[in-house]
Amino acid sequence: MHRPATAAPRPNPRIVTTQTRSARMTTDRSSRPVAYFFAQVGGARRDVLERMPGQLPRQAAMGAVIMTTAVFAAVSATYALLIADVTDVLLFAIVFGIAWGIAILNLDRMLVMGMGKERNPKRLIMLAIPRVFLALVIGVVISTPLMLKIFEPEVDAQLQKNILTQQEELRSQLQGSTTASDLAAAKGTLSELRATINAGPTTDPAANSEVKAIQSEIDALAKTASTQKSDYEKARAAALAEEDGTGGTGVAGCAAACVAKQRVANEAQARWDATTQQIAAKEAKKQQTINALRPQLLEESKQAIADAQRDLPHVQQTVNDLQQKVDAANGTSHEVALNNTGLIARLQALSDVTASDGTTRMARLAVAALFICLELLPVIFKVLTNLGKPTAYDNAIDQIDDIETDQALADWHRTQAETQRVKDEEAEELDHAREKRNIRRQVEVAAEQDQAQHHEQTLRLVNKEVAEHQREVVSEALAEWRDAARAAAGVRMNAWRQNVVGNGPAPKHVHDPTGQPMPANGTTPPGPTVTVTSLPDPGTI
Question: C-alpha dihedral over 303, 307, 312, 315, to 10 degrees?
Fold first, then answer.
């Protein structure tokens, strides 16, 4: 039989939409892993972005800026290690640079994520101020080595100039040192000794020490006289100019100013004349000394040559030693200056270049501002985002945070309730065990008390029975003793009667009713022995 064809079931639109969305999310995750990575670097949640792909570019841009700063920080640290001569191994510098870049990355993420979702402008600014200050510091630290690399040719040229300047300063310091002064004095003495030896024996009075001393005084006075002459000529010219009106007050005639200037000129002339007279007196003394020493000048010259030959090796050795010290100091200072090419020297060279060249200074400021702005960009972007209208991602994060907070609180309450339930069960078990122990202890105490009571009753019963038996034994013993005593008393009475009344001889032995013989002397026979057994030990019953 032919059956009509049934229509295909219509798909559920909700299921189709969910499947399509899941397929789109799977394709988006597989095709944009870098964007998701940058978004996570910027502090975004990937599980939220996978459901809101439209918010991905904004969050990825934040992470890309932070990653760019970290990369520049790694390059800057690597270059700084190499130029500072901390290490010559490139691999070690690269590893340390990567570690430094990771540290800067974490700091930037902390700066951005630490601001949270604050919307209050005042509190947001208060939160941003320390983060901006820290970002400025990080930007300066990162930009400095990079600027050294960017301006490397200018820095190298200035560094060579600084090295030459430093060498000249060190050389000047050495020339003014005590060692250099001693070397110059030793060289002067050495030259004098050699000149004395090379001149040979002579009668020239100029070689005599006394003549030399007088000549030195004359030379000093000549210099003084020359200065005084110059002062006199200046004072005389000023006085003449004042007198003829070509100088000074400009009024011709010798008034008070002219007289004062003439007096100054006269005083200068008097000082010059006095010095000239002293020079003449010294010249006369010099000539007298030469005349007095002329006969012995040859012998003194020979003696001076001998002394010079004796002192020459010692002075030469002194000059050599001092020269070696000066050369060593010069070499050391030269090496120090040449080796001063580290990070501090390069920073100083960069400062010198920017201080002397306005173009370089502006370029340095521009590069520094670029890196500082690059470091400040994530913080500023976060501040502006918080001050602006919340995005769909922000709203979703708020809702998810609220849900997760509620779930966390519910889990916490559930955990606390479970913990309290376990504690209550444990407390109940402890109470039950304690109650069992108390009941067991009470039962044991009751059993012990009952056993003690039974034992006491048993002892009382045994003692009662023993007392009854002892009473019976004592009664029987007393009865037997009473009968025996009566019998004995009758026998003794009969014997006494016989002895008193009949005067007949008393029998030797008298038997008591029990058949036991009694003494014939009339003493009382011993009574029956009654033995009372001891009470049984209560512990053996």
Answer: -140
> Six-digit token pair at 196?
């004395």
User: pLDDT at residue 265 above 60?
Assistant: yes
Residue 250 lies inside a defined structural domain of this protein: yes
pLDDT band at 307 (very low <50, low <70, confident <90, very high): confident
Residue 535: the pLDDT is: 42
Structure tokens at 117: 């979702």
Query: Does residue 70 fall inside a structural domain?
Result: yes
Contact (CB, 8 A) for 530 and 506: no
Structure tokens at 328: 């060593």
Widest CA span of the chain, in angstroms?
218
Whole-angstrom Cα distance, residue 335 to residue 325?
15
Task: Give the residue numbers spanning the domain of 101.
Answer: 34-176+357-388
Residue tagged 């998810």 (tokens): 400
Q: pLDDT tens digit string along 155-180?
A: 888 888 877 777 777 677 666 677 77
Report, as an integer, the average pLDDT of 103-123: 76
CA distance 290 to 207: 11
Between CA 377 and CA 68 the distance in angstroms is: 11
* Cα-Cα-Cα-Cα dihedral sign, residues 497, 502, 506, 511: negative
Among 383, 236, 213, which residue's Cα sits nearest to residue 286? 213
pLDDT at 330: 66
Structural domains counted in the chain? 2
Arithmetic mean of pLDDT, 481-501: 83
3-state SS assignment for residue 495: helix
Q: Which of 26, 32, 75 is nearest to 51 (CA)?
A: 26
Q: Scanning the structure block, which residue is given the tokens 């809702």?
A: 399
234, 247 Cβ separation under 8 angstroms: no
pLDDT at 85 over 70: no
Q: Which of 148, 136, 81 is nearest to 347 (CA)?
A: 148
Query: What span, in angstroms and rounded, lies between the C-alpha atoms of 13 and 18?
Result: 9
- Separation in Å, CA 518 to CA 40, 306, 412, 495: 137, 174, 114, 11
- 266 and 225 within one domain: yes
Q: Please give the single-letter amino acid code of residue 280.
A: A
Domain assignment of residue 317, yes or no: yes
Tell me how crowded residue 275 is: count the other CB atoms within 10 A of its CB.
19
Identity of the amino acid at 312: L
Type and span of the H or E element at 510: strand 510-511
pLDDT of residue 333: 58
Nearest to 326 by CA among 162, 185, 178: 178
pLDDT greater than 60 at residue 529 = no
Backbone angles phi, psi at 517, to 5 degrees: -70, 145
Rounded to 5 degrees, φ, ψ at 511 are: -95, 135
508 assigned to some structural domain = no
Confidence (pTM): 0.41
In this structure, what token pair is assigned to residue 97? Answer: 């640079």
Is the dihedral angle over the CA atoms 185, 191, 197, 203 positive or is it negative?
negative
Residue-wise pLDDT tens digits, 437-489: 888 888 888 888 888 888 888 888 888 888 888 888 888 888 888 888 888 88
| pLDDT recorded at residue 84 | 64
Do 272 and 362 sit in the same domain of this protein? no
